[in-house]
Design goal:
The chain has one domain: Rossmann fold, CATH 3.40.50. The strands form two sheets. It has a seven-stranded mixed sheet, with helices on both faces. The protein has a two-stranded antiparallel ribbon with strand order 7-8. The longest helix is centred in the middle third of the chain and has 11 residues. It starts with 9 loop residues before the first helix and ends in a 10-residue tail after the last strand. It is of the alpha/beta class. Helix 5 links the parallel strand 4 and strand 5. It has eight helices and nine strands. The C terminus is likely disordered.
């Protein structure tokens, strides 16, 4: 099975473009392994994944990928410091109970952490809440309030402040507006917190090893 960049979800296309060839990568919540497969085929990446869904783990293994079934919060504790060049957490952060504890763990095992998440401040969500007074739904957040796996409400502005508060730095960011079931999109240059459906961030420590306190 071979994947092209356009076969990936749009946020994964952006993430893939940020990964340097030959890197060591761990994909947390890797799903069916599309990103790992693309990175292995096109960038020579040495990658592993962690996924809790048993059926998706089986599909990854059938593709020849190295994927562990388990809770990513616990599994990352077993890796040594700086074991990876990149730690990827795509569309999973909003389902994490303790993101303020997880992120330092990820920056312990990886040089860079790449995160993508649905932006709860998108204008359609604001308008839906204003007009209907109900928990909002849109193509990126299609769940009812009672069956949603999302336990965190994250906006692009919130995430920037979160990284600043933890003392880390944003190395790259790409607010994106997606369509066609998130398979296509574009980077939002202005009013990102209002217009972007997803936020994508690369996070790291200061180059000199100190946390960023500015």
């Amino acid at each position: 099975m071979s994947l092209s960049l356009k076969d990936l979800r749009f946020d994964l296309q952006i993430i893939a473009s940020w990964i340097e060839p030959g890197s060591k990568v761990i994909d947390l919540g890797c799903g069916r392994g599309d990103l790992l497969l693309y990175l292995r085929e096109h960038k020579g990446v040495k990658g592993i994944g962690i996924e809790k869904d048993e059926a998706e783990v089986r599909e990854c293994i059938q593709k020849g990928l190295t994927v562990i079934q388990g809770d990513l919060n616990q599994e990352v504790l077993d890796y040594p410091d700086q074991a990876f060049d990149y730690v990827i957490l795509s569309q999973t952060l909003q389902q994490i109970y303790t993101p303020h504890l997880l992120l330092p763990s990820l920056l312990r095992i990886g040089r860079r952490v790449i995160v993508s998440f649905p932006n709860f401040a998108h204008w359609t969500i604001r308008l839906d809440l204003l007009l209907h007074g109900r928990a909002p739904k849109n193509p990126q957040l299609p769940y009812e309030w009672y069956d949603s796996p999302n336990i965190r409400v994250i906006t692009i502005r919130d995430f920037r402040e979160f990284i600043h508060r933890l003392g880390y730095r944003v190395i790259r960011e790409a607010p994106v507006s997606t369509y066609n079931q998130d398979r296509q999109g574009k980077i939002v240059r202005r009013w990102a917190n209002l217009r972007a459906t997803y936020g994508i961030f690369m996070v790291g420590k200061e180059e000199n090893g100190r946390k960023n306190g500015n």
